[in-house]
Write a structure and sequence with these properties.
Elements: E1 12-13, E2 20-22, H1 29-53, E3 58-61, E4 64-67, E5 70-73, E6 76-80, E7 83-87, E8 90-93, E9 99-104, E10 110-113, H2 116-120, E11 123-130, E12 135-140, E13 183-184, E14 187-188, E15 214-220, E16 226-232, E17 239-248, E18 254-262, E19 269-279, E20 285-290
Antiparallel strand pairs: 1-2, 3-6, 4-5, 5-8, 6-7, 9-10, 9-11, 11-12, 13-14, 15-16, 16-17, 17-18, 18-19, 19-20
Length: about 290
């Protein structure tokens, strides 16, 4: 039901005759409660829109660095399920030999968890994988929202190249890119650097077939297990992926495999996947389960 507003008029009396020229609107509990209810519904609508449009996103700052097992962040602002928080700079102690997620909770406090789902339900900020005394790898998991990403409906073009599509009654783009194309945005399809990759009959990206990579192993432990495995591009020997085993159990079986994937330059981290390793009674590896 839409808000039913009242029309308020002044109570006017002729100063000479004392005659009531205009009967003013009476202030009653019913009319004041109508105002209160309208304000409450407006706030509920704003909160609902903030949750659906902004959700849990970082507006500024909240970048992390690590020194040993101490993770520090810069001050910044973020939304947690539509509620905004201004967060001062601070630090938190990381757990050793563990993959962990840093997130902003609904009380505005930066917290740590090993459960990715818990962090994603709030405002996920960063991921750290550690050994006994330091960080093995860290990944920026912030969903950063730029105010420039929001535009008025009147500024959205109805159609045309490089335009933001309007949504139809079903929430679909009023225009979209369809069909096959030899190039998109000036980039051609192929398997070379800075090209749009193709996929083979199994759906794998042709440019990144694991079998095409040079394998380098290092970090052999006392049991003869290599704890670090690198996949390098044979053309330039640049790093594609580094797998690091950590968190050994009492029998020396490593329970965590952190795989860091790198961009074409071989040094910039693209993304990280962490696997939980499970062994049978004989100590043989039986499963590798990736974190969600």
């Amino acid at each position: 039901m839409s808000y039913q507003k009242n029309t308020w008029v002044d109570h006017i009396i002729d100063p000479t005759t004392g005659e009531v020229v205009q009967q003013g609107t009476k202030v009653t509990a019913n009319r004041l409660n109508n105002l209160e209810n309208g304000v409450e519904k407006a706030h509920q609508l704003v909160e609902s829109l903030a949750q659906s449009v902004v959700g849990s996103s970082v507006i500024s700052g909240l970048t992390f660095t690590a020194n040993g097992l101490i993770a520090s962040w810069t001050s910044g602002s973020a939304y947690v399920n539509g509620v905004r928080f201004d967060v001062p700079a601070g630090s938190i102690t990381l757990n050793p030999t563990q993959g962990q997620y840093i997130y902003l909770d609904s009380d505005g406090v930066v917290k740590i968890t090993t459960n990715q789902a818990t962090a994603q339900a709030k405002c996920l900020l960063w991921y750290f994988a550690t050994d006994a005394s330091s960080v093995i790898t860290s990944t920026d998991r912030r969903a950063v929202v730029d105010s420039a990403a929001f535009v008025k409906q009147t500024e959205v073009a109805a159609n045309g190249a490089n335009k933001i599509p309007r949504l139809d009654a079903q929430g679909k783009g009023a225009f979209s890119i369809t069909g096959d194309a030899a190039s998109v945005g000036g980039k051609t399809v192929g398997s070379g650097p800075n090209q749009i990759p193709t996929r083979d009959q199994y759906g794998r990206v042709v440019a990144d077939h694991i079998t095409d990579y040079k394998v380098v192993r290092s970090g052999k432990d006392a049991n003869g297990i290599f704890t670090v495995v690198e996949l390098r591009r044979p053309a330039d020997d640049k790093l594609y992926m580094r797998s690091t085993l950590s968190n050994p159990d009492a029998r020396g079986n490593y329970q965590t495999d952190t795989r860091v994937f790198y961009k074409a330059d071989g040094t910039t981290v693209d993304y990280t996947k962490v696997y939980t390793l499970t062994y049978d009674a004989d100590g043989d590896l039986v499963s590798e389960v990736p974190a969600p």
